[in-house]
Amino acid sequence: MPKDTFYNLDQEKRERIINAAMDEFSENSYEVSSINQIVKHSNIAKGSFYQYFENKEDVYKYIIEICGEIKNEYIKRVLNRAEYMNFYDKLHEVFRAMVTFSDDNPKVADIINRLYRIDDIEFRNEIEESSKINSLDLIEELVEEGQNNNEIKRSMDPKFLASFLYNASIFMIDHREGQGVLYDIDEMVNEVLKIVSSGIKPTPRNKGFMNLL
Fold first, then answer.
1. Which has the closest alpha carbon to 113: 94, 98, 91, 96?
2. The pLDDT value given to residue 203
3. pTM, two decimal places
4. What is the full DSSP assignment across 86-99?
5. Is 199 left (phi over 0), alpha (psi -120 to 50) or beta?
């Protein structure tokens, strides 16, 4: 995280450094990204950089935290608009927001996507957990609210269900990217919601009706 000297800078200079770092991490993998490029495009001396951050890992963690805050605020705004909806309608809006987030925030989405491609799994998991970038807490709150309203089985572990739903959203993001921007997002979300609410077992036929045939 930044040193106190970074927070003591004027806002314009801080934003210039943040923007330069976001550009670098959105255009390159963590391994390839360069402090030299960050200082060049933020117009500061390299020595000054080390007065603000310890190293590349330090500034990267800070940028990831910013991206996590942007993503979570995006989803919170969706949830606020869906305040009076039932659980499944809210989940539809959250799923849709997570799929379309990259359309509205392409640079942030690129940084997040590159995080998941870091080869060092331990480092990647550490950053993902500390930054809360995966929005699991928001989804878990939604699940617990649904349980309190008797819209979901109370016997289900909310953490497990939240993780399942989050990974369902990751699948939809990947699937949509493979289909192109003209793909019907709502149709895809509705299909996933059918699986979540009804499962994949076929509906049993009405035996009384069958006996009349």
1. 98
2. 66
3. 0.82
4. -HHHHHHHHHHHHH
5. left
